[in-house]
């Protein structure tokens, strides 16, 4: 510094590289993500087969592949460029972070690889505890004649795949036993299919997973890339100055026993590595800009849709679980909301309407099955039902009393046994609705009553917009098994009351008078008996 106080100087920053590498390794916070990253690197090396072997008893993870291998030069470049993009555009393995991700998850981490066309292999030894103490990190390297054999519990899988492995990642002494024990086959398959399917399809790769659990039981699975088998929706493309081209290649996910379980992923255009919708939404939820887009994000993550949303100008973060927060990403949020308003909402609302109709139909059939069971067990009610529905025509009590005897009355009346629906199984809830009485459902805005009776069709039509129905059918817009039970209870109560009203009423005027009395009883019954029930 000069005598008059003017001038400048520089302050050198000393970095403890070992500690920094350990912190960066936590970019992949779970063992599962580290394993998926190893498989991704194998796909990037053009592997056609990848074997992931997890030994919970020995706290060991082995990942081997038949790709082109890694040279000493390429390995060094990856280590020296941790956190930077070092590979060609479109490559899955864009960041050196994946290479060091095992450091804080195991006692010993070994990376071995035989480059394509070479006879000897390279072996690098990572000692996590030692690296953490080093200001300047050196990774020991030596040549080896061949890769070690796959460990004993996994030899049968190795023989079945019958290939020459060129790269092996070996993690020994997983530092937290519970970490390795929480890696489940289903979870690992899900992550691989969501994260790696694009690369697997393009490279023709299959992934084989074998887990030896802590009881010595071996389970295996061959994982193929995820294919979209649902109904294709119209492909939609938007253009924006910040985000570039945003393309929606989406499908209506196929229906399963658990409902629609579609997965939507988001990725940079022409890339292979997507992030899941859950990861995309989690990042967006941390942004103050998302408030007005909540519905669009919720619907795209509902399982109804599956497919890919690509954005031209977004930048994948080194963590590979999110994008860099910039104008391109924020604009992308807006484009997603625009697509939802232009196209997505109508698809989803149609689906919701269909699901609602199917649900009410099922609940109605189950309710009628229970109702007829109870009536059939009561001789008095049984005779009432037989009298009411002896013929397809619905007659008033006075008309029935005036029915002449003789030829016109020789029509054989149905018995209660014939009127009851035949069970499809031993479960009474699966019985089909009877032909003698039906439930139907309509949204009737402005209609003051909970139900109306269709005399010609012998159908009780419930108004699903009535406050009593809404009260029993949902809580904060959500429906659970409890709501199903409440709606069934309501239908049983109203159905039985209407049957008795039909039996007692001399004409329709009397029926309407009785209806008014029932309407007065339904609300307190629903509030004090049905709704409080768990």
Strand content: 15-25%
Order of neighbouring strands in the sheet with most strands: 5-4-3-6-2-1-7-8
Low-pLDDT runs: 85-95, 391-435
Number of discrete helical segments: 17
As for the number of domains, it is: 3
Mean pLDDT: 82
Textual characterization of the structure:
By secondary structure, this protein is an alpha+beta fold. It folds into three domains: 17-223, Heat Shock Protein 90; 231-348, Ribosomal Protein S5, domain 2 (2-Layer Sandwich); 378-404 and 412-530, no CATH class. Helix content is 40%, strand content 19%. The chain has 17 helices and 19 strands. The strands form four sheets. The protein has an eight-stranded mixed sheet with strand order 5-4-3-6-2-1-7-8, with helices on both faces. Strands 9, 10, 11, 14, 15 and 16 form a six-stranded mixed sheet that branches. A hairpin with a 4-residue loop joins strand 18 and strand 19. The longest helix has 50 residues, at 327-376. The radius of gyration is 34 Å and the shape is elongated. The chain starts with 16 loop residues before the first helix and ends with a helix. Mean pLDDT is 82; it is low at 85-95 and 391-435.
Name the features.
Heat Shock Protein 90, 534 residues, 3 domains, alpha+beta, elongated, 8-stranded mixed sheet, 17 helices, single chain, Ribosomal Protein S5, domain 2
